[in-house]
Amino acid sequence: MIVPRTSRTEILSKLRAKVAKRLPIHIASAGSGLVAKLLEAAGVDCINTFSGARLRANGMGTMSMLWPILDSNKQTLDYTREDIMPAIKGDAFICACLNANDPLKDMRMVLDDCLRMGVHSVSNIGPSISYVDKGSEIRKVLTSAGITLQNEIDLLKLGREMDMVTIGLAFDEEDSIQMVEEAQPDIFCFHAGTTKGGLRGYDSGETIEETARRTEEANQKLRKIKPDIILVAHGAAMEAPADAQYILDHTSCEGFWTGSSTERLPIEKAVSAAAKEFQALRFPDNR
Prior knowledge:
By secondary structure, this protein is an alpha/beta fold. It has helices at 8-20, 33-42, 51-56, 72-84, 107-117, 137-144, 149-161, 173-183, 208-225, 241-250, 264-279; strands at residues 25-29, 46-49, 93-97, 121-123, 165-170, 187-191, 230-234, 255-258. The chain is built from eleven helices and eight strands. Helix 7 runs parallel beside helix 8 and helix 9 crosses helix 10. The radius of gyration is 19 Å and the shape is globular.
């Protein structure tokens, strides 16, 4: 097995070419090699790996990664190296979503590991302090313990220094502006919230219209900071292809990031439907 290699220059050249042709950029999560293989064959531009996707592949919710049940960075790097990289042909590039707040790891060494295995893109979402509500007591305690958004920003800055494609995510306008101003990521995704639907989704009651509005409000401010930034949308009410089309129709996003929408939800539906068909089979009356 020889895993395909790429580079920051090659990745950005392909993405810019799609933007010029007015073709949506598609970033998608994969928690297994099979899903990664199928995503790449479908034409997805970027496959991202992170502990939340790995847990979803095991039937848990994304937020399970917030509990100390695993070493998030080790989980991400191990399954990226063993399951994802051997499954792809190199048409899609891989982005590792890392935990920048890991107190036991030098992030430069973690990024070195990524580059050695052929991963030339990094994101700050695996997991992010932004999953914890601002103003909450637990957020205050975490911040006092040194678990901060600044560490995530510094990770993206280091990734750029190491010639990686950086993909930033933040959950509100304030953090989005700070991240784009300081880290200057190549790609930015306004994380509108956990995707609804299926067995483990979370429905906040927000409509796709509201998700699009909040996303575009952030986009308008971010483009003033970094005009050449590539903006993508993710989460909340953007569950199905029709929802993503609404985002493309009503925001200035160049594309979208799918997680559960192209891995957990399709798997739940397909496996359930196939299993029910088999369960409905009966012996013939003459047997």
